[in-house]
Design a protein that fits this description.
alpha/beta, 60s Ribosomal Protein L30, Chain: A, Alpha/beta knot, about 30% helix, 6-stranded parallel beta sheet, 4-stranded mixed beta sheet, about 240 residues, single chain, elongated
């Protein structure tokens, strides 16, 4: 039986403040939970509704009704875990890192994390105004990549001012990506979904790049996550 104290604890993790005070976050779904366990994350709570489940033999079996009380999904999964935050590694050891300037949509951030994982980028710098990477909707959208990509909550402007590597921003006024000479080390900055790069961050860029429209295209812009994928693909292919 799931106690009221446990129900209250899991539901409190919906709040960013509580997540960071407690140092833990929610993961739902068999695949997402399995990825966290395989990557060695410390699990604090693990619940399943399938008594015959062999994937998580140490989990506490609860009823579907109890799962609905702690799940954040419209249709609850049969698996939910609470993981502790992973120990953060130094992102400066990576040649290239991704930085986000006020990405606010959880689905976009989750997709960006998943994309970074695909192209081998292990660190993302999340500036102030960017949605919390441990928000349940972000974690869900990563499809398990949350366990391999580390997100650093930072003062982006202060961080960029201290860089001894090239800082590149995605911007419609930039040079065509196909013509950009990718340096060996750098920071790629992706701006807000609607406003793009903030003026304070834009001043700190060494270069801007843009993804050229197709012939005859009248589209105003690309989704932030799609832009990230195209640029990361280009960077990874040229290193």
């Amino acid at each position: 039986m799931l106690s009221q104290a446990k129900i209250r604890f899991v539901n409190q993790l919906l709040r960013k403040k509580i997540r960071h005070e407690e140092g833990c976050f929610i993961v739902e779904g068999n695949k997402g939970v399995r990825e966290g366990l395989e990557e060695g994350l410390t699990v604090k709570e693990l619940y399943v509704t399938d008594q015959s489940s062999l994937a998580f033999p140490d989990a506490q079996v609860i009823t579907e009704k109890e799962m609905k009380k702690i799940s954040q999904l419209t249709t609850p999964s049969d698996t939910l875990a609470v993981f502790s935050f992973a120990e953060i590694n130094d992102w400066r050891d990576s040649d290239w890192v991704l930085a986000l300037d006020e990405i606010q949509d959880p689905g976009n951030l989750g997709t960006i994390i998943r994309t970074a994982d695909w192209f081998g980028f292990k660190h993302i710098l999340c500036g102030q105004g960017t949605v919390d990477p441990f928000h349940p909707k972000v974690v869900q959208a990563t499809m398990g990549s949350y366990a391999r990509v580390q997100c650093h909550l930072i003062d982006l402007e202060a961080c960029l001012q201290q860089q001894n590597r090239t800082v590149v921003g995605a911007d419609l006024a930039g040079v065509p990506l196909k013509n950009y000479d990718v340096p060996s080390k750098g920071v790629l900055v992706i701006g807000n979904e609607g406003r793009g790069l903030s003026s304070s961050v834009e001043k700190l860029l060494d270069a801007k790049v843009t993804i050229e429209r197709g012939v005859g295209s009248k589209a105003e812009s690309l989704n932030a996550a799609i832009s990230t994928a195209v640029i990361l693909h280009t960077i990874s292919n040229r290193l």
